[in-house]
Amino acid sequence: MTESTGKMTGARALIECLYREGVDTIFGYPGGVLLPIYDALYDSDIRHVLVRHEQAAAHAAEGYARATGKTGVCIATSGPGATNLVTGIANAYMDSIPMVAFTGQVPSSLIGNDAFQEANITGITMPITKHNYLVQDAKELPRIIKEAFHIASTGRPGPVLVDLPKDITTEEIEFYYPDKVELRGYNPTYRGNLQQIKKAAAEIKNSENPVIYAGGGVISSDAAGELKELAEKIQAPVTTTLTGMGGFPGNHSLFIGMPGMHGSKYANYAIQESDLIIAVGVRFDDRVTGKLKSFAANAKIIHIDIDPAEISKNVKVDIPIVGDAKGILTNLLKYAEKSQSEEWLKKIEYWKKQYPLHYIEPATGDGIKPQYIIEQIKEACEDAIIVTEVGQHQMWAAQYFRYKEPRTFISSGGLGTMGYGFPASIGAKLGKPDKVVFDISGDGSFQMNSQELATVVQENVPVIIAIFNNGYLGMVRQWQELFFDRRYSSTCIQDSVDFVKLAEAYGALGLRATKRDEVRPAIEEAIKSGRPTVIDFVVECEENVSPMVPAGAAINEILDLERKE
Amino acid sequence: MRHTLSVLVENKHGVLTRVAGMFSRRGYNIDSLTVGVTEDPTISRMTIVVRGDDDVLEQVTKQLNKLIDVIRVTDLKSEETVERELALFKVSSDVSNRSEIMQIADIFRARIIDVAPRSMIIEVTGDESKIDAIEQLLRPFGIREMVRTGKVALRRGAKGVSS
To answer: What is this model's ipTM?
Structure first.
């Protein structure tokens, strides 16, 4: 324990703990039981970003964490404030993002009484947090906060919730901040087993058709450099998952795009014909593997992951290496040699030429294809941070941008949360103020958290929301077209909102592009303006995301869906 | 295939909910679960009997280990473990069959802990098969109520599962 820094209230102690954890920005919304904490925040140096709905606070904290690598922090009041955080917490849990969520709670004496604005938030969030706490003794508050940040950011990262009864925040305590954390039930493994690493190296050397399958773990362990070195040394193609985008340069000759449902054909073919999969920081999600039985059926599988529970959860692993990706790849680089991949790389080049990602330009000339917008944003601002909502636009953003750096693509992977992107982009922009930040959005997703326009205007957070407005809940419409005989049940939302006027009503800049040659000027104007901007791109309304592996099919049973004009 | 897991956990509120919640969320079946404090008052021991093949057992063990409040998980192999369960049976009885029931209890080294004009309560301790056996024999008399504690277990010999 460090020296006591004197007596203070629980609320003041919370702020002190945040300083000590290096927190400079938090996202939240006040409420009755939070009054003591917000009073303490009032004259602190911590920037509090007032959102307009608590869900946005959680997503913004996650966006901040993803853009910076630091732990995101959000805060909400008891009852509805706390339950509004739930989606954001679940999202961070699914994608293993470090976050600490603070919630107010009714005074200890009222807990269990069905008091006003009471919700059992530790009970509610138990299955969607890495750990959570109900503080029962004010003296324990500093220790609990220390543990919360430690648990959130180490091992496999994830969200931790700390529930703060009002009386805890007003009680005076002697403040001690512990130097270190002692948790006998929590000792994540960082160093990979050397024997396993050597075994992996031997397999790589003999492999003829190796494929590296890399995911979010590469980003969170900051291992992109090591991954690139390994790929080049062993001469293996690399496919990155949605959450792994940017973990390997998208313009590299060994890059083969995303695997799975809307992955590239050549990534899926490569996995299916591979004799050795080197999986790094991935969890063999069903959107990647398709039909499990036929996934990489002839391949041996090396799986590097910090979470032992991911080993052989979905796909039987031959060489598990549990630990931190960066350290393991560094060690593997010492032992790995070039694989026997000369013929294989030729075959992959052939597939790339034969089955490129592509779309058909409209015959009439001036309609806007959504893929074209992604390409234009890339040309206009290649080093932007791209945040997305969930749906067709998300897949196009994953397919066509070709991210070069880690932490430049931020998207809701596991949970698939519509409404995630806009608030996450606020967090990303505040974490990386020098970067241009785009929220690639759909007209459906944007309306799930459009109230945050008030936040970006009030706080002057100049993010650019690019709405791919096709008048449909496009991804669901695509499935209805393909599997439900074009019966567009509750997916048509045409002409429901004027997004330009909506932006203007909040005091943001509203732009619209309805023709192909208006796309680039709108993007340029938004970037130049330096203001929060909504661009309403009116796009081809029945464009499909292609290619596509139908649900339940093997990933090499991948179909072209582009619409012929 | 049934496995007996000895799980040492922090003796804190909410830990049982975390463990039980993990089982239900991931779709694993608990056959029985007992919990009580250990020789160290800050630690509780859960003895969990779980059904599933080796893959399920591996996942259950790993998922338990991921819980921050779980300190250690050990799969107790039956050959190196002593296991006990306690059961209470309230059996219908009267003067005509009381001595017959007492004889059965005697054979099983069970104890009569309550006698009333129309019922008796029998306490029996043993492994699962012993308790199943006495249950079979008592059933014809009419079991009015019965309660079983679920299994508790310790590894044989000096070596424990706590260190």
So the answer is: 0.91
Local structure of residue A108 (DSSP, 8 states): G
d(Cα A102, Cα A88) in Å, to the nearest integer?
Answer: 13
Instruction: At A183, list the tokens.
Output: 């948790």
pLDDT at position A245: 98
Closest of B1, B21, B3 to residue B151, by C-alpha: B3
SS3 B3: strand
Residues in chain B: 163
Mind listing the pLDDT tens digit for each residue in A335-355?
A: 999 999 999 999 999 999 999
Share of chain B above pLDDT 70, in %: 98
Is residue A391 within 8 Å of A442, Cβ to Cβ? yes
**Rounded mean pLDDT of chain A?**
96
Give A73-88 pLDDT, tens digit per residue: 999 999 999 999 999 9
Residue type at position A283: R
Nearest in space to A125 (alpha carbons), one of A157, A85, A174, A185: A85
- pTM score of the predicted model: 0.96
Does pLDDT of B54 surpass 60? yes
What are the catalytic residues of A? Answer: 54, 116-117, 166, 475
Measured between alpha carbons, how far apart are the two ends of chain A, in Å?
71
Which residue in chain B is spatially nearest to A129 when comparing CA positions?
B67
Chain-centroid distance of CA A351 in Å reads 29
CB atoms within 10 A of CB B134: 19
What pLDDT does B163 receive? 45
pLDDT on residue A563:
59
DSSP A490-548: T-B-TT---HHHHHHHHT-EEEEE-SGGGHHHHHHHHHHH-S-EEEEEE--TT----SB
CA dihedral A100, A103, A109, A114 (to 10 degrees): -130
Six-digit token string for A346 = 């030729």
What is the C-alpha to C-alpha distance for residues A515 and A523, in angstroms, rounded to an integer?
A: 13
CB contacts, 8 Å: B14 with chain A = 122, 134
B160, pLDDT greater than 90: no
A–B CB contacts, 8 A cutoff, strictly below: 36
A507 vs A505: CA distance, rounded Å: 6
Angle between helices A194-206 and A325-335 (to 10 degrees): 60
What is the arithmetic mean of pLDDT over A358-386?
Answer: 92
CA of A325 vs chain B CAs: smallest distance (Å): 19
Whether A187 and chain B come into contact, CB under 8 Å, resolves to no
Angle, in degrees to the nearest 10, between helices A421-431 and A54-68: 50
The tens digit of pLDDT for each residue in B59-68 reads 999 999 999 9
Q: How far apart are CA A545 and CA A301, in angstroms?
A: 30
CA distance B22 to B3: 17
